[in-house]
Specification:
The complex is a heterotrimer of chains A (about 325), B (about 500) and C (about 350). Chain A is built from 15 helices and 2 strands. In chain A, helix 13 crosses helix 15. Chain B is of the alpha/beta class. Chain B has 2 domains: about 240 residues, Rossmann fold; about 140 residues, Rossmann fold (3-Layer(aba) Sandwich). Chain C has about 350 residues and is an alpha/beta fold. Chain C has 11 helices and 12 strands. Classes of the chains: A mainly alpha (about 325), B alpha/beta (about 500), C alpha/beta (about 350). Chains in contact: A-B, A-C. At the A-B interface, helix 9, helix 10, helix 11 and helix 15 of A face helix 2 of B.
């Protein structure tokens, strides 16, 4: 409301890159490609939103990728080993991920571990658990079978907005993948929680000044636990979406995603110093990384260059954040 | 001033605090009336913080009771104390910089609607009412991080008022404020007084205490040793009671020290028309060996920027710099240090000290060359150097292996000064050397600075504390809005003249 | 080159070289040189004037896909009208899926694919089929039906390995499998072939351990060290690829077990062949991977130039390529330009 265009610069960069790729690559600005971007990066955007919560409280969750892997494998096991129907297995898997997030929160608050260390430990522990409970390792014949549960498979559907709105007669609109609709729901919920509830304000308070939060009667621990739990919840939602997309769960599902999500959140203006952040920022950050990767692939530029560029944008974002916060500091006359 | 027969608001009886067998606060009696502003003074370790912490609920006393409005309080719970009407404004901000003023005022207790959502309208109305009632000018929707320091203090006061507090404790509230800002804060305190709110004002700056407080409590060695109306005590007596006869005398004597403008007459550092775009311009002065030159001015007048530019830590766009008659332009602090300049920065916790490291590590930092042989540190020399400075500067505790962060502010400052003494700089610059340091330690530091001067070094001190400037300066340079306004011999200028020059209206 | 030093009694090798020669004739992509090759497909080029695009999405950078890519390039880049691109799946299925998406959207004519996961890539292959793009998998098959799968027979090869290993062990003893992670068809083929081979030829040999080491030499060192601690009397090890087998060799070297431990790999990469020559690795299933790439590329040109649509494949075609079991005796016959 009174945030004065926090994501303005990011939005400009996003639009500029979008225009650039639309202009310089043949198929970038086409309905199928936009579908690809939406279905390929909506899950990353959901994770970036989840990652924003712990970062806002001055923490971070390195285990988010392993947690996704864990949720996916639990869902796979429930389907292929225990033959549970999707309406039961999906909520169980999501709950398991939320609990795993809760474990992170407890490690950080009760054992007073540094978030980096605590979630680095669970990064390894969750991944180990994935291997331990992997139905594909325990029953090798399951490894080459796909998940056929109609509840799960229906999550990889598309919403044909062109047809629904009747606009398909004039222009080919991209169909919206279900994962994008899930992202919209997550984004609206997260936005409301963050800006319209005391919990959201507490998250920023704890991140902005933990001592002040404590003195103001905000339960710092509970708020931190909720942040990690929310992160786990997002991991669970993504786990389900990925199983629907892959029709299986691999032991490596989610590997390396933690860094991408942190990058997306930071590019989206969620500072690692804690205390501030929006929901739109990380989503925009995730899709920014997405269009860069897809745009450059379409341009035929090597993937190593793409990774270098991603790193450069991350550095740029952090530097920009630094620059604006310095400007604010000097505006407040804090330095003599 | 307070009505003499106002009702007693808070009364503490027989309150004490011990850790094991060590009693840090002896049983004390303390009471304050509604609408009274009480100054609480004492050296570091006198027990002020312990008393404050008991009143905020951060500590539970070993014995004793506290009564508020005739009701006995349950102690040792910060939230309960806040609910009962005792608020505290700490030296370090307890605001959340990234949130708006409005959200900070209601931190942790924002009103919500029936459905659990934040009730912005009620919140805004309540805040507007407070702002109007206490005549505080604030943009409620502004983020706290973009406010000036004094505005932030006012937000903290509003936060206390929103809790319907009847007693506000202020711990060193002016530590980072300029003169005009202090005046603004005192005006706000006056308003509080007129609304029957009691204030406990803890400060090392005695001028302020005499200025704003109705009454004073002096603490020493864990006890209240004197209590009475401000009108019944004068400054020398207060210092004597506070720090004891000997130190008090030293402190008073330092006021009557002989001034040595232009010291030995040799120019050490000569600056001509220094300028940095949009920050400062036309700064010209000479610094002589054997003198203390004080830079007085408001926070933000550009004084720190000038010395940082001289030291090579910030950009210098224009002007000429001569050290010992030779032209220089330092591009990094390293070059300046090699040429013989030392700088003790303003925020010692942020810019100066390695907080997690030992006293010895911090002392040898600038003199690593001296304690190392072909790149390797000599432990023996390191220890020798550290012990020498600890003795020289009376750093307490005198253990070189103690971690710096546990030292008091005064001793931390001594460590910083000691660090530079080993490199024997010809020019030593100190930026706000005594912020947050008690009177006794201040006197020691002043003594050290004079000793350095008498050794023939050139000392440049930036200070926003006029009391300090008038105490130690041989000459005074006044800066305002990025310009060097005037330079005076210390004996030949009055306090009022200086204030006028500084522009603190 | 097939005629040099043929010795009686080495039927295995002769068969291999003979079939390699047939392959050369069949598609004109001989080991003898690209001149033959370009002239023979020249006609196809004349027939299809339009430009073609093909991409290869690899598992992760490794000697095997690198050699395939080189083989594919040998064929495609000579044609002048074919644009070819190697893309890296970074060993992540979601990366491969995203790359599949962009390639499909980009309208390539053929996608070569080495899937990270045989099941998870399925929806992407189905999507490619809907877009009419044929997908050719290399070595690692996908569960979803696609145009063609180019491989040496992993099952038969692993049986041969079991036979050779059993012979080297004298028909008894304990062996371990250093395996790939599950979810990849090739793992099942090689594992089953090895297990069935032992059952058939050497029923007295006991498999005491079967643990995944993620195709990785370092990981295999750790895994085999643990196995060795649990079973000090283990006498043989089968690495499901050469990297993992070489990891076992590293451990054997450290523990002074070289020469005592019978170690077989699979694939036949250059390092493995050298190790066999040094007498460290016992043997491996070798195939000419350059050649395999050329086979795949040749098949792709046939499909693309023939205007064959992906939907016209009713089930997956298999393109089998020859192999030999390389051991100390046979390894010398593999020419330098056949090594990858």
């Amino acid at each position: 409301m009174f945030k004065r265009h926090q994501n303005f610069a990011l939005l400009i960069l996003f639009l500029a890159l979008f225009a650039f790729f639309s202009f310089f690559t043949r198929r970038f600005f086409s309905a199928p490609n936009i579908e690809d971007i939406l279905s390929g990066y909506s899950f990353m955007a959901i994770l970036a939103v989840g990652q924003a919560f712990p970062i806002m409280t001055r923490g971070l969750d390195l285990s988010i990728g392993s947690n996704v892997g864990l949720g996916a494998m639990i869902l796979f096991d429930l389907d292929k080993v225990f033959h549970l129907p999707g309406w039961a297995s999906i909520p169980i898997s999501v709950t398991a991920c939320a609990l795993a997030g809760c474990v992170n929160g407890l490690l950080v608050t009760q054992l007073k571990l540094q978030p980096f260390v605590a979630t680095l430990a669970t990064l390894a522990a969750f991944r180990g658990t994935v291997y331990a409970v992997s139905g594909r390792q325990l029953y090798p014949e399951l490894a080459t079978q796909s998940v056929k549960d109609p509840w799960i498979r229906s999550l990889e559907g598309f919403l044909d907005i062109g047809h629904l709105t009747g606009l398909s007669r004039f222009v080919r609109l991209p169909s919206l993948p279900f994962s994008f609709l899930a992202l919209l729901v997550v984004a609206v919920l997260a936005h409301v929680v963050l800006n319209r509830t005391r919990l959201g304000l507490n998250l920023k308070t704890v991140g902005g000044n933990p001592e002040a939060a404590h003195l103001a009667g905000v339960s710092v621990r509970r708020t931190q636990i909720v942040a990690y739990l929310a992160c786990g919840l997002c991991a669970g939602i993504v786990a389900v979406l990925l199983v629907a997309r892959f029709t299986t769960a691999t032991e490596a599902t989610g590997t390396g995603m933690e860094l991408t999500t942190i990058a997306a959140a930071v590019i989206g203006g969620v500072t690692l110093r804690g205390g501030s952040g929006t929901v739109a920022g990380p989503i925009l950050g995730a899709f920014l990384l997405g269009i860069i990767l897809i745009g450059l692939t379409l341009m035929g530029i090597s993937q190593f260059t793409q990774q270098i560029l991603t790193g450069a944008i991350l550095l740029g974002a952090v530097y920009y954040d630094r620059l604006t916060s310095d400007r604010q500091k000097s505006a407040s006359g804090g330095v003599a | 001033m307070t009505a003499v027969n106002a009702p007693t608001l808070l009364r503490a009886t027989g309150v004490s605090k011990s850790y094991g067998s060590l009693e840090v606060l002896h049983p004390i009696e303390f009471s304050i009336k509604a609408g009274e502003v009480r100054g609480l003074v004492g050296s570091n370790g006198a027990g002020k913080s312990t008393l404050i912490k008991i009143l905020t609920g951060a500590h539970r006393p070993s014995a004793g009771d506290v009564w508020l409005n005739g009701r006995r309080l349950q102690l040792g719970n910060p939230h309960l104390m806040m609910d009962q009407g005792i608020a505290c404004i700490y030296q370090h901000s307890s605001l959340v910089p990234s949130l708006s003023v409005l959200d900070n005022i209601f931190l942790g207790r924002q009103p919500t609607t029936r459905f659990g959502f934040l009730d912005r309208r009620t919140q805004l109305q309540a805040a507007q009412k407070l702002v109007a009632e206490y005549r505080i000018e604030l943009d409620l929707l502004e983020k706290v991080e973009s406010l000036s320091t004094v505005k932030q203090k006012e937000v903290e006061i509003l936060k206390a008022l929103a809790l319907r507090s009847c007693l506000i404790l202020m711990d060193e509230p002016t530590a980072w404020l300029s003169h005009s800002e202090v005046r603004k804060l005192h005006a706000t305190i006056d308003t509080l007084r007129s609304r029957n709110i009691a204030v406990v004002y803890v400060s090392h700056v005695l001028d302020e205490v005499f200025d704003i407080c109705d009454s004073i409590s002096i603490m020493r060695d864990g006890a209240i040793v004197w209590e009475g109306p401000t009108t019944s005590i004068d400054r020398p007596r207060l210092i004597n009671i506070m720090v004891g006869e000997k130190l008090g005398k030293a402190s008073l004597e330092s006021l009557e020290q002989k001034r040595k403008p232009r010291g030995t007459g040799d120019i050490r550092l000569s600056c001509h028309a220094l300028a940095r775009r949009n920050i400062f311009s036309d700064v010209s002065f000479d610094l002589y060996s054997g003198e203390i030159l004080c830079f007085a001015g408001l926070v933000g007048a550009g004084r720190s920027d000038v010395v940082h530019a001289i030291f090579g830590a910030a950009q210098l766009d224009d002007g000429a710099l001569q050290l010992n008659g030779e032209a220089h332009r330092f591009r990094s602090p390293k070059e300046a240090i090699l040429a013989g300049i030392g700088l003790v920065p303003e925020d010692r916790r942020r810019d100066g000290l390695l907080l997690a490291h030992s006293v010895a590590d911090n002392l040898v930092l600038a003199a690593l060359k001296k304690v190392s042989r072909s790149g390797f540190l000599s432990q023996k020399r390191r220890r020798g150097l550290a012990l020498r400075q600890i003795r020289n500067l009376n750093i307490l505790p005198s253990n070189p292996d103690r971690v710096v962060s546990v030292l008091s502010g005064g001793n931390q400052q001594k460590v910083l000064i000691g660090r530079w003494l080993e490199t024997a700089p010809t020019v030593l610059i100190l930026d706000e050397p005594t912020v947050g340091i008690d009177v006794g330690a201040k006197a020691e530091i002043y003594g050290q600075l004079r000793a350095l001067r008498d050794e023939g070094r050139a000392v440049l001190v930036i200070s926003s504390d006029l009391e300090e400037v008038l105490t130690i300066a041989d000459r005074i340079a006044v800066m305002a809005e990025g310009k060097l306004v005037s330079i005076h011999d210390a004996g030949a200028v009055s306090r009022e003249e200086l204030i006028a020059k500084i522009g603190g209206d | 080159m097939t005629s040099r030093d043929e010795q009686p009694g080495n039927g295995n090798r002769r068969n291999f070289l003979k079939s390699a020669a047939y392959g050369t004739v069949a598609i004109g992509a001989g080991l003898t040189g690209p001149e033959v090759l370009s002239s023979s497909i020249g006609q196809a080029r004349a027939a299809t004037d339009k430009n073609l695009k093909m991409s290869f999405i690899q598992f992760l950078p490794h000697t095997v896909p690198a050699a395939w890519s080189k083989g594919i390039e040998d064929v495609l880049l000579k044609q002048g009208n074919i644009e070819y691109q190697l893309l890296d799946g970074q060993a992540k299925i979601e990366v491969q899926i995203s790359l599949m998406d962009t390639q499909i959207n980009d309208g390539v004519n053929v996608i070569f694919l080495q899937p990270v996961d045989s099941v998870a890539i399925g929806p992407s292959i189905a999507k490619a089929r809907r877009a009419g793009i044929p997908v050719i998998t290399l070595n690692i098959d996908a569960v979803e039906d696609h145009a063609a799968h180019v491989e040496m027979s992993h099952y038969a090869g692993a049986m041969d390995i079991a036979k050779a290993m059993g012979a080297a062990l004298g028909g008894k003893g304990k062996v371990a499998i250093i395996n790939a992670p599950p979810g990849i068809v090739i793992r099942d083929q090689r594992t089953n072939g090895f297990v069935d081979g032992l059952k058939k030829y050497h029923p007295n040999i006991q498999i005491v351990a079967d643990q995944p080491a993620d195709w990785d030499r370092k990981k295999a060192q750790e895994v085999f060290t643990t196995i060795l601690a649990a079973h000090p009397d283990v006498a043989g090890a089968f690495g499901v690829n050469d990297s993992m087998a070489l990891g076992v060799v590293d451990v054997a070297r450290d523990k002074g077990l070289l020469g005592k431990l019978v170690v077989f790999g699979d694939d036949g990469e250059k390092d493995a062949l050298e190790s066999i020559e040094k007498g460290e690795l016992t043997g491996t299933q070798y195939t000419d991977v350059y050649q395999q790439g050329r086979f795949a590329a040749a098949a792709a040109t046939v499909i693309a130039s023939g205007g064959v649509d992906a939907s016209s494949f009713h089930s997956k075609g298999h393109l089998l390529i020859p192999y030999i079991i390389a051991t100390k005796e046979t390894v010398g016959q593999i020419q330098p330009n056949q090594r990858w």
